[in-house]
């Protein structure tokens, strides 16, 4: 079904997944460290060139009697300049065996290095492309159990913030979007990005969806969310799919498409707005619970050995429910009367954050 829908949409076919790694440098972006200013790079290369000229001048001056005339240091520096730049006027030339040997063994390799410095910008670009190609190749081989976020709009950014606050490493999050500006923001956060439409199977495969632990579907349109969910479920039957839908009437479409959990954004926002007019403190507490980086947070943890057989209501933590075999039982259900081996607890966690760092 997903394949038929993709075939009907323009621009949803292709073989990106079969392209060589060097051809994907404009599609997959692996975060790197802070980028230096180009002016700083140019200044650094100029310093290297001057240092190289000075070293050659010192070498030539140390054998100043081996040339067509006795050299001053200025002459030696002049000779190193015209020699390393391959200008070679010929007014000063080595005549003794030792001077010629030094030119062959020392100055010629330095001449090559100096030329490399002169064309350093081009070489830097080529080196950068090769480095990125190797990064993509390495990443595609080792990426496992990661989380894919489809759409880096308001919902996608909030989902990523929650993941990062819960301790997920940025390199374990992959963002798919067709907006270059949004992908740049994601890359600045240290996230791996893939440019393209997630309705295309090859784009999903580039993001490693078949090896992903979870997929967050958060595009702007409900029909896109349905198609993406269908595509993901077809390629990755075991991945957890959490999808966002704007209208409640489309919830069943996402569930039928294979979404494990569906969040109705417009209805949730509407309820929050209604509550805010009647009980604003309730909305404040709910926002606190949904913000994992401060205050209280809803979290999940494994039970400890001494908690087996206990009633979750009597534990130190405020337990909201028990997760058993992947199914959630609320605290008031009969199944949650006793904690069993292998259970996980859904509880309220207190998050501490130091606003001011003490020396």
Automatic annotation (TrEMBL):
What keywords is this UniProt entry annotated with?
Ion channel, Ion transport, Membrane, Transmembrane, Transmembrane helix, Transport
Origin, by domain of life?
Bacteria
Annotated localization: Cell membrane
Q: How does it sit in the membrane?
A: Multi-pass membrane protein
GO:BP terms for this protein?
monoatomic ion transmembrane transport; potassium ion transport
Keyword rRNA-binding in annotation: no
- Signal peptide boundaries: none
Q: Cytoplasm as a keyword?
A: no
Coiled coil segments of this chain? none
Can you give the residue ranges of the RCK N-terminal domain? 144-264
Q: Which residues cross the membrane?
A: 46-62, 101-126
The terms describing its cellular component in GO are: plasma membrane
Family matches, as Pfam families: Ion_trans_2, TrkA_N
Protein name according to UniProt: Voltage-gated potassium channel
